[in-house]
């Protein structure tokens, strides 16, 4: 049989599409492709409206079964095709859109799914949400992205090793940004106390600064002596840093800039996976530009790692970061690695540094990495990591979490949304959460129709500490959790699991007893 597959992001544009809306569908398609090849021929489609029915007609003429798998959200699925069409989509909420807006009937997912007649998703939560709207008999199945098998060599190697918190690993990057709170060279990028105070005050003021020129002049006069002293100190520290590490280059200090352009009023919400547009007026810190370059970082101790798109508000990195710094404010060998996944990095890193600058002093370590990691370097990052961290408000499946756990890395994660299918106390240190009303992310009306999960911050702090104690003091328990994580993911997201579920679903709901199956 023939499988026609499509995602809006493809191999040609993924390198500059990281972080854009629905970019993860490309990776899901890539993982599914090897499973589909076990069942038949796979043809990647570039334009569904022009190509799908052409291939379908040829397959039909040859008495061959053919199906179109659209790895897109339902509202972006091409309708009206002769070829059987199955949307393959991720969704993190307990209700699916059953209304339309902007005069586009496809925004009503129930309409799209009814038209297609069946669907594939990645969590039982979404299966229940769809069946609640379309009936218990509607053909939809959860098949998580099959990521387990591709880590077989790394998993075997890691599970054979004894758990250790004294190992060290050097991670290299060919072109990217690496920032380390234990590195004195980070200082030029950090907002100083004046910048933080003014940014916070301006953000809290309902009217902004009335007389900006006067305020700037007054602030400049008061800060003049401090500025001279701070400038000389910074220059000296930079010279010391350059002497210790010739790869480091002196950077400029944070400055304050005055912006007066009024921000246009918009009815639509900001896309949750697009960079935040800075406020158009008032004082805000302007960070020095960071230029991607080759670099390396040595990691050791108890390493907590998270991979996420920093512009996706659902990922909730602020709680992740602040709770970590609270949990380990006096613990030098606890490290949080934030691996950022978006082609636009400047504003994201500035936002993280601003958050760090507002925190009380801490001894733990925070490392920010932006840039592509080669396979060997990515596997090294997995290997040195003690835990993988997720603090999101909701997940459709969470590929990074599944990948790290497939390598035997226990998690620090909440128990909600798609994670209900594979997270529990045997494989993770859990944090509490509660439901909070919100809108569907693509709804420009901002109509509250569903709920997200708000993380209980204090329980996150406790989960961090419990995980650290386990890694440091209970290596036998850590090994059991590591083995359980790998075994859990084999059941959840292996190729064999996906193949069996997909083959049975197609036979029962799409092709019946077609001879090509």
Automatic annotation (TrEMBL):
<dbReference type="GO" id="GO:0016740">
    <property type="term" value="F:transferase activity"/>
</dbReference>
<protein>
    <submittedName>
        <fullName>Glycosyltransferase involved in cell wall biosynthesis</fullName>
    </submittedName>
</protein>
<dbReference type="Pfam" id="PF13692">
    <property type="entry name" value="Glyco_trans_1_4"/>
</dbReference>
<keyword id="KW-0808">Transferase</keyword>
